[in-house]
Amino acid sequence: MRTTDPFEFLDRHRDTIFRVLGLLAALLVVFLVIRAVAMRFGGWSAAWARLRRECAITAHAFAAPVKAWVRHRRSLRVLVHGLRAPATWRDAERAVAAAREAAGPGGPRPYAVLVAARTVTVLLTGPRIQAPEREPWWIAEGEGPDHWSADRADLPPVVPVPDLALPVLVAVGEVEGQCAFLDLAAGPPMVCVEGERRSGVALHQSVAAQLDARLPEGMVVVAEGVHRAFDGLPIRAAHRAADQLRPRAGLAPVLVCAELPSPLPPELTAPPGEFPELRLLLLGEGRGYARTLLTDRSGQVSVVGTPLITEGNALSRALARVLPSIPPVLPPGPGGGDAISSVRLFAELDEEEADEEAEELPTVPAAAAPRPPAPEREDEFEEEAEAPAAAEEETRPAPAPSAHPVRS
Question: For an engineered disulfide with 269, which of 288, 306, 320, 408 has Cβ 3.0 to 4.6 Å away?
Answer without folding.
Answer: 288
